[in-house]
Amino acid sequence: MSKQDKQKLSVLAVLLGVLALTIVLGYRMYNPPITATVQAPEQTKTSERPPAPNDAHILLERVGTEGEDPEVGKRNLFQYRQAPPPPPPPLPRGGPSQGIVSTPPSMPPQPSVKSGPSVITPPPINLKYFGFFRTTTPNAGFTAVVGDDSRHYNVTTGEVLMGRYRIVSITEKTVEVEDLEHSRRQTLQVLK
Question: Does the reported pTM lie above 0.70?
Answer without folding.
Answer: no
